[in-house]
Amino acid sequence: MTNYPDGIVKDPPKWLTPQGLLDIVTPVLQGMGQRLGVVFLDLLAVGVVWILVSYTVNWHSRGEISYTLAPWWLFGLVTVELAALWESFGHSLGFKVARRELVGPGGAPPTPGQRVRYFLGWHFTVLPLVGLVFQRPWHERWAGLSPQPISLEGRIPPPWWRTSVGIYVAVFLVVGLAAATSTTVDEESLNRLFTQAWRTVKFWRALFSPDQSIILPSIRDLLVTIFMAVMATSFAVVVAVPLSFLAARNLMRGPLGRLIYTTLRGALSIMRSIEPIVWAIIFLVWVTARRAPFAGVLALWVHSIADLTKLYAERLESIDPGLIEAITATGANRLQVLRYAVVPQIINPYISFTLYRWDINIRMATVVGVVGGGGIGQRLFFYLKNLAWQQAGTVMILIVILVWAIDYLSARLRAKLA
Amino acid sequence: MAEPYLVVENLTKVYERGQVVALKDLSFTVEKGEFLVVIGLSGSGKSTLLRCINRLIEPTAGRIFLSGVELTKLSPRAMRHMRRKIGMIFQQFNLIKRATVMTNVLTGRLGYNPTLLTLLGRFPKRDRELALKNLERVGLSEKAYVRADELSGGQQQRVGIARALMQEPELLLADEPVSALDPATSHSVMQYLEQMNKEDGVTVLASLHFLSLARRYGTRIIALKDGQLVFDGPPEAIDEVKFKEIYGEEAEEVEVR
């Protein structure tokens, strides 16, 4: 190729190379994604308010659960038109979230004529989606408007009640609260809340007249609960400490690291969102031959691993990189950097998180016991099931004392570590 | 002609995200025993330059030679070996805050000692004696067993210097060593660097904010602007015109006494 005189052999045009192609496609897709995001958010905003209003009205007028007052096609049509109208003013929620506003050339605010053209043109480009592929979609060109970053230079921002987004958020909160109230509160229950308190008197009395004969066996169960928490926490630490390094964003660089990080974080979220009580049922089915506490320990263990790994990893993510630089600069190897730059920064927080988790585990061990996971919870559940209020009250008082003591102890210890 | 001590050749650093060019095709040499001061505005690439030399930051392109060895080609292991002879001190001191001054100073010997021993926190007796000697040198022998975060800023930076001294360095990189200190303390810290340079023959590369400090301590000054070399010469050669070129039209020189 180099043997030819200059100008005979040309390099392939830049847009034919993979990189060149990517350079062309990326901004188009980004622009499209941004515009779609704005439209989607506005549609969602309008739609959600409509649904909430319909829901509330239906609940009160007809006492049934229904999400629209109008037929679905009408709902769709009105939502789309309202969103388009909102956007044509250039300050819709979508634009606001994208930190953009619709302005004419030179940053002039849109004139009524431009707004009408934007609104009409919107239907021909945004709705069929293909129109958004163009770097400046047709409706924007026709109206002579384009979304520009919001600049407050030389302007005084209007107060929130003078902006459509501010009013929208206010309306949304009111409507949302109304819908939530309609679902959860009814008049009769509300009445009884203020008039029927005397019905519980017998129950309270039983709770506060402890049955002394069961105190000793209850304390034995209390010890089992503490031991369950200790076991679960200790074994969770063993797993969570190494895992936390894999779940720290700043340590997991590169494509492989990112993959491990994302997978692990995802798995942890799932593990954490499954309640310990569900884990307890799983492990009860799985392992319980005779000793119920073991299933409880496993349930708490799994949940603690997920929780501790997340807490540890977040601490790792916020360590000071300066110390790592300083120790690396002395010629130390990886292990030495870990020992002298990372460990000193994380050791106390790690201990503190562990104590905190142990404290949680003691409370959770009680809950796990309720489904049969052993310990004091199981005893409490037994009494409740048999309507033995007096005994249940005794157990509850013991639990309160224990939780209070552990709370106090762990808070004091953690304050020392801080 | 003998090869200069430190050679930087066409050094370029581009940060991946946002394609920020921190250093553009930078070339210069440093002779042994020089006290070279790097000046320039914040973000002009001073820190990146220093960190490229001991490869805390991997250069994108270009080569760096230290006494004839091409640093940019070394394996991670060989680079660690080289770093032992390159001390570094930092603007934020970067000490282990919860550890004693003694432990902090001893970390300067990590590269010289077997991993297993250091992981257990053990250092040879010789190193401990050297640490005490170096602490005495920076006037902190009384504070050897005090926690590092109980010291004042100037004292912490002196611990940083003692840590660098432990490496028995040939080259010292000082990244804005006095920017976090008040003027009086600044001079005391700079004087320790000067002492290392004059008495131990350590070549010093220091980035500084104040031109007055650069003039007072540097034997030579280089100036960076947007990652490019805009000045290279003796301190006296920086006049009003040069100054405006480096720091911009609106800059006004501030004196630190």
Q: In words, what does this structure look like?
A:
- The complex is a heterodimer of chains A (418) and B (257).
- Chain A has 418 residues and is mainly alpha-helical.
- Chain A has helices at residues 18-62, 72-88, 93-97, 112-125, 138-143, 164-184, 187-195, 201-207, 215-246, 254-273, 276-287, 292-317, 321-329, 334-373, 376-385, 389-417, and strands spanning 100-103, 146-149.
- Chain A has a two-stranded antiparallel sheet.
- In chain A, helix 9 packs across helix 16 (389-417), helix 11 crosses helix 12 (292-317) and helix 15 runs antiparallel to helix 16 (389-417).
- Chain B starts with 5 loop residues before the first strand and ends in a 10-residue tail after the last helix.
- In chain B, strand 9 (220-225) and strand 10 form a beta hairpin.
- Chain B has a domain at 1-85 and 211-257: 3-Layer(aba) Sandwich (Rossmann fold).
- The chains are: A mainly alpha (418), B alpha/beta (257).
- The A-B interface holds A 320, 322-323, 325-333, 335-336, 339-341, 344, 348 and B 51, 54, 56, 80-84, 86-88, 90, 92, 94-99, 107-112, 115, 118-119, 160, 163, 166-167, 173.
